[in-house]
């Protein structure tokens, strides 16, 4: 999955993505893309992340202003780390290995990701789709934070994992709109990569169903975002 400034290859429509998402989850994961990675994996991830930061901030700035007349509270910083060397969040520390997260602490709201974790996915999914999917999810938490700051008392997530499903849904909204606008180009294998990721990460250290929902719930929330808008995600999840 590339920012538009990169070379285009195969464009997959949202409709096809939905079909493949449903098929792959039901089939226990289809094969990953086999495209050759042309550059150093870490450099590739960092270039994609840098491009995506601007796309996400611009998109949600326009979207929240248009839907709610809100001013998107962009993350104060965006950073990467390796393994468990992630920064504190509000003075507290939690091992961030193989994870990405949004820290919601006022005056230090930031998104961070484990670079080693992201690069590990390039061996199976060379199209970069996982980098785009996970960061779009984390920016969904920044959207939630904006709602809570500027329209307090409106949003509650019960049980708590509904907040994660909401972020999955918002990720789908962003990716679908960005693909339609050709700000992001889906490549051959990206749909399978996204579907496989959701199937495999319905559980695990950071993805226990009690904290993020089941794999089926997560895939459904993302699929809803592909065909709905942010307000639908807000009301439904």
TrEMBL record:
The keyword Membrane applies. Its main location: membrane. InterPro entries: Uncharacterised_pept_Zn_put. It is found in: Membrane. The keyword Signal applies. Residues 1-32 form the signal peptide. This is Neutral zinc metallopeptidase. It comes from Geodermatophilus maliterrae.
């Amino acid at each position: 999955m590339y920012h538009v400034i990169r070379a285009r290859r195969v464009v997959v429509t949202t409709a096809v993505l939905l079909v493949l998402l449903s098929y792959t989850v039901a089939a226990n994961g289809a094969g990953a893309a086999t495209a050759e990675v042309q550059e150093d994996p870490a450099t590739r991830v960092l270039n994609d992340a840098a491009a995506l930061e601007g796309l996400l901030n611009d998109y949600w700035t326009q979207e929240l202003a248009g839907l709610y007349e809100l001013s998107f509270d962009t993350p104060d910083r965006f950073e990467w780390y390796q393994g468990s060397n992630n920064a504190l969040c509000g003075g507290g520390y939690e091992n961030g290995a193989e994870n990405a997260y949004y820290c919601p602490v006022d005056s230090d709201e930031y998104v961070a990701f484990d670079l080693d974790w992201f690069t590990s996915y390039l061996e199976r999914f060379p199209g970069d789709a996982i980098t785009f999917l996970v960061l779009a999810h984390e920016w969904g938490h920044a959207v939630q934070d904006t709602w809570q700051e500027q329209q307090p008392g409106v949003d509650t997530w019960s049980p708590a994992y509904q907040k994660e499903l909401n972020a999955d849904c918002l990720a789908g909204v962003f990716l679908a709109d960005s693909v339609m606008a050709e700000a992001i180009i889906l490549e051959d294998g990206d749909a399978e990569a996204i579907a496989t990721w959701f199937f495999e990460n319905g559980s695990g250290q950071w993805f226990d169903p009690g904290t993020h929902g089941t794999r089926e719930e997560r895939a459904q929330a993302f699929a809803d975002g592909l065909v709905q808008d942010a307000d639908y995600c807000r009301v439904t999840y």
